[in-house]
Design a protein that fits this description.
The complex is a heterotrimer. Chain A is an all-alpha fold. Chain A contains 13 helices and no strands. In chain A, α4 runs parallel beside α7, α4 packs across α9 and α7 crosses α9. By secondary structure, chain B is of the alpha+beta class. Chain B has a 5-stranded mixed sheet with strand order 2-1-3-14-6. In chain B, strands 8-11-7-12-13 form a 5-stranded mixed sheet. A two-stranded antiparallel ribbon of chain B has the order 4-5. In chain B, α9 packs across α10 and α9 packs across α17. Chain C is an all-alpha fold. The longest helix of chain C is centred in the last third of the chain and has 33 residues. Classes of the chains: A mainly alpha, B alpha+beta, C mainly alpha. Chains A and C meet through α1, α4, α5, α6 and α7 of A and α1, α4, α5, α6 and α7 of C.
């Protein structure tokens, strides 16, 4: 394969550089905005690099006195995404496994996955009324429950695709040895399936962390308002401090970006697995 | 002042006699936009909590754009808001849907006589009061004194035609490329600017139950907006500006004129963040020769108790505190008091005489947006019409006729 | 009754998922259907049956037509651009160059960025007075005067599409890359020695490996694009002159801002129907592609 012309090599490197720039420039700018003074940000011509690094926004957002609302939103996001992820996995693992082993159940799973097509607006009005009836509006449990409607189908789909390549022989061998179903799952299947489950867990967490529409509708104050709504509020209100908005964005982006970078391989193989076998 | 404030608070608490030991939590919804700043509202609330140690108030701030929907949506949850800020245009809808508690019986004679009559229109619907007025606000014409004098303009515009002429002069002199900044984004803000002009041109929104803004003064108002945009006198970015964008442009020295709420005066004229500090002038929005002397939109807002509140009495005490004269006088930099006698109180007027004078003229002619339960729908249609005309997608007449048809009225 | 004991067990394992889905999707969906035939309001009174009136009114309104058009424009352009750009960059990432591992890692960043942060970031970039885009283009001499990117219908839609493509093309690129790595080297080499040119090699050797994963990406992205809400909500709120108001925004407006739960529900179901038709069309395409591929 080593017969590329030098021109082609140059072209490839130039293209790679261009892609890297296109991906990085907006992110770099987000960071620069978050540490630039207001004067730098409203200067004409624009100052691309701050004269002094201004970390006051981060202090403002993360200190207990001035950032109470932001910290509450951060906490709510973690709690809601965490609960929804665990719940989605606890229904998705058994369902995904059995669907992988019993093809005749495939249609059930198909029906569940098909709900992913539903736009959230199609469920929002009754969900609002149902949550209201049970006193679960503006409540982290209520929001996590609603998130299941998004996470559960997606996670089950990923898990089933991930379970498919795990050989059945192991299971029948263990079954002959007289293992009960739960023992079977715990001892034989789970160790092999762990990477798949980990991938599903990350995807679910990221989906929940990203969610905005339901959070906008179903939360009204610090008790349950999530980070995405808090950032939208910040950007929609007194927006004169662009740096503050940028700093909030950087903080909200850190967890998913860190997870994405660390778990990149697992994420992509999870998606392509699902993709190829889908 | 501190003693008067404390005295007022003590009386307020003594009158209602809520000495319950159990701590009551109130949830209050405010906006993070224009008028009082978040810090002001926190400070006002802190002084209430100090005087009422058994009550704790949780504050929630959303952008103006989210205020209406948040209020309505929270009605479903038992633990929603107790006190909500509402715009002058919502009492009709809120009354019809039972969102707010009728507080007519709680209003004292002292409030009745002391508060400006214009402020009461904010909270009244069909003879009942659904809260207390809190923010008494209208749009003023702000100008950059330095730019005007550079262009040889001695007096601020008295009519909208004068504004056009002055802006042309400033543009021709090369002082600033786009002299006027407005908030014409697809939002309620655009309707507020339009209402100001509509009132100047003697127009009407609704006549005999049918839309009437598509002809007469209403049409002339949009004609004026479109012409000003067309002539390059208005910053073309105005069509995506909200109030805060207008402030940013104006206080950065990139506009000679701006239409905005009270709060901009001290932020642009007295804050270190502003590069036009000390150069800001303000007058009531102009009129139209032979039709009106000044123009103004009623942009006031009130505080009300939600129908779902479990603590209506404590909520009322909180509202009384927030709207009381001592509190309002103490925080009169970003929003002017609702109390008539405050306007002659040196504590309020000191350092902002120009604004007080403009308020005297503007508040007197505040023009209401229509009182209808379908206001949201009408406003949305109007916003679209205004933008279509500004973008040249339709003539002002076509755009307004389509809006009238689409208004749900 | 259960001839096969495992079938009973199987259902038992399926049950939690099914129960959850019935509670948070099935029940609300049926309720949406019921509401769509009534004049129910979100809060307060109402709820009389009105037959098909909601559907007729929604389908006949000019708001629906403009929102459908906006949604279609957004979906077609952003998904199309994401696929083309994604495959091209996927091919690039499969080449050897310095810093390849690093670039592959970087690709995950836009995808991991929360949508709300992405929307806010681009809104700041497009800011007409102090935005980075105007500053950059002016300083490079590409435009004379600052533009109101989000203030004109054409550029506002383009601006939204760019923001969406920037966030989502990397995922398509990474999926393409993973699929490309599955192409056996010897087939590639054989094609080269057969003298096939680059395009023919791509068309007949590489593409068949890409089709499956790409179809999935296509379906997922189309569904997501058709549901778009948060990006538009934050960047333009449907403006200017409602030119970027998507169907989801229209439902929000109808059901929550105007509080007409009934007609909002009917509109939501109309959107669901459109997405379903799209998805079935895609699935049919996928089957055909799969049939050809194997």
């Amino acid at each position: 394969m080593d017969h590329r012309s030098p021109l082609f090599t140059v072209f490839i490197h130039a293209a790679a550089l261009l892609v890297a720039l296109a991906v990085l420039a907006p992110l770099a700018w987000l960071f620069v905005m978050s540490v630039s003074s207001n004067a730098d940000l409203s200067a004409k011509p624009l100052h691309w690099w701050p004269e002094t690094f201004d970390l006051s926004r981060y202090r403002q957002l993360l200190s207990v006195e001035t950032g109470a609302a932001f910290l509450a939103a951060l906490r709510n996001s973690i709690v809601v995404a965490g609960m929804a992820t665990l719940a989605a996995l606890s229904v998705g693992v058994p369902a995904g496994w059995i669907a992988s082993r019993k093809p005749q159940l495939g249609w059930t799973l198909g029906a569940v996955i098909a709900t992913y097509m539903l736009p959230p607006v199609a469920l929002s009005v009754p969900l609002y009324m149902i949550l209201a009836r049970f006193g679960l509006l503006n409540n982290v449990f209520g929001l996590a429950l609603v998130y299941l409607s998004i996470l559960a189908p997606f996670v089950t789909w990923l898990l089933k695709a991930g379970f498919d390549p795990i050989p059945r022989d192991l299971e029948s061998a263990a079954a002959i040895d007289g293992a009960r179903l739960d023992q079977l799952l715990r001892i034989v299947i789970m160790p092999l399936a762990l990477p798949v489950v980990a991938t599903a867990l990350i995807f679910a967490f990221l989906l929940a962390w990203d969610e905005f529409f339901y959070a906008l509708l179903f939360t009204s104050n610090q008790d349950a308002k999530t980070l995405s709504v808090a950032i939208a509020d910040l950007a929609g209100g007194r927006v004169s401090d662009y740096g503050l908005i940028a700093a909030a964005g950087v903080i909200a982006a850190l967890p998913p970006v860190a997870v994405g970078l660390l778990m990149q391989r697992a994420l992509i193989s999870g998606l392509t697995n699902g993709g190829v076998k889908g | 002042m501190n003693t008067t404030l404390k005295a007022a608070l003590l009386t307020a608490t003594a009158l209602t006699g809520t000495a319950a030991w159990a701590e009551t939590e109130l949830n209050a919804l405010f906006m993070a936009q224009a008028a009082y700043s978040e810090d002001d509202i926190r400070a006002m609330t802190a002084s209430f909590e100090e005087a009422n140690p058994d009550v704790k108030v949780n504050l929630e701030f959303v952008p103006y754009e989210g205020l209406h929907d948040k209020t309505v949506l929270s009605m479903g949850s038992g633990g929603g808001y107790d006190v909500v800020l509402f715009d002058v245009i919502w009492p009709a809808e809120y009354a019809q849907n039972g969102v707010l508690v009728d507080v007519t019986g709680k209003i004292t004679d002292e409030m009745k006589s002391g508060i400006l009559p214009g402020a009461w229109t904010t909270v009244d619907y069909e003879g009942a009061s659904y809260g207390m007025p809190w923010i008494l606000d209208t749009k003023y014409l702000f100008f950059n004194k330095e730019m005007l004098s550079k262009a040889g303009i001695d007096t601020p515009p008295a009519t909208w035609a004068d504004l056009t002429a002055a802006a042309q002069k400033i543009k021709d002199a090369g002082i600033v490329e786009y002299p006027i900044a407005w908030s014409w984004a697809q939002a309620e803000a655009a309707v507020c600017d339009y209402t100001t002009l509509l009132s100047a041109f003697g127009g009407e929104f609704i006549k005999d139950g049918a839309p009437a803004f598509q002809s007469g003064g209403g049409l002339e108002a949009l004609d004026y907006m479109a012409a000003s945009m067309e002539a390059g006198l208005t910053n073309p970015n105005s069509k995506e500006f909200l109030e805060e964008d207008v402030r940013a442009v104006f206080q950065n020295g990139d506009a000679a004129f701006a239409l905005n709420w009270t709060y901009m005066y001290n932020l642009a004229n007295a804050s270190d963040e502003s590069s036009v500090k000390g150069k800001v002038g303000v007058v009531a929005a102009p009129g139209v020769e032979g039709v009106s002397e000044h123009s103004a939109v009623n942009g006031s807002m009130g505080l009300g108790i939600t129908a779902t509140s479990q603590h209506p009495d404590e909520a009322w005490n909180y509202i009384v505190h927030m709207t009381s004269q001592p509190v309002q006088n103490a925080y009169a930099r970003l929003s002017l008091p609702i109390w008539a006698s405050s306007y002659t109180d040196p504590e309020v007027t000191a350092g902002q005489e120009e604004l007080i004078k403009a308020a005297g003229e503007g508040l007197a002619v505040m023009y209401p947006r229509p009182m209808t339960a379908k206001y949201q729908e009408m406003s949305m249609a109007l916003q679209q019409g205004i933008q279509e005309a500004l973008l040249g997608m339709a003539t002002p007449q076509e755009a307004l006729e389509a809006a009238a048809e689409n208004s749900g009225l | 009754m259960f001839t096969d004991r495992l079938t009973f067990r199987a259902w038992l394992l399926m049950l939690p998922l099914v129960a959850v889905m019935v509670a948070v999707v099935g029940w609300p969906l049926v309720d949406t259907l019921r509401l769509s035939f009534t004049d129910a309001r979100l809060v307060g009174t109402g709820g009389e049956g009105v037959g098909l009136e909601n559907y007729a009114r929604m389908l006949g309104s000019r708001n629906f037509r403009s929102a459908l058009w906006a949604t279609l424009t957004f979906s077609v352009w952003s998904v199309g651009a994401e696929l083309v750009l994604g495959v091209l960059v996927g091919l690039l990432l499969n080449q050897r160059f310095y810093g390849r591992t690093l670039l592959r890692a970087l690709m995950i960043l836009p995808w991991a960025l929360p949508t709300v942060v992405n929307a806010t970031l681009w809104r700041l970039i497009y800011n007409p007075e102090y935005g980075a885009l105007n500053a950059a283009l002016t300083q490079l001499g590409l435009i004379d005067a600052y533009q109101s990117w989000l203030g004109q219908p054409g550029t506002a839609m383009t601006a939204l599409i760019v923001a969406d493509v920037w966030k989502n093309f990397p995922l398509v690129a990474l999926i393409s890359l993973a699929a490309l790595q599955a192409v056996p080297r010897d087939i590639q080499a054989a094609a080269v020695s057969d003298g096939a040119n680059a395009w023919r090699r791509f068309r007949h050797v590489t593409l068949p490996y890409l089709v499956g994963p790409l179809m999935v990406a296509l379906v997922l992205r189309t569904i997501e694009a058709f549901k778009v809400f948060d990006l538009i909500w934050i960047m333009t709120r449907g403006g200017p002159a409602n030119s970027t108001r998507s169907l989801s925004l229209l439902v929000y407006q109808e059901a929550f801002a105007f509080q007409r739960a009934g007609s909002g529900a009917s509109l939501a179901l109309i959107i669901t129907l459109i997405i379903t038709v799209l998805a079935i069309g895609y699935l049919a395409l996928m089957r055909r592609a799969a049939g050809q591929g194997s």
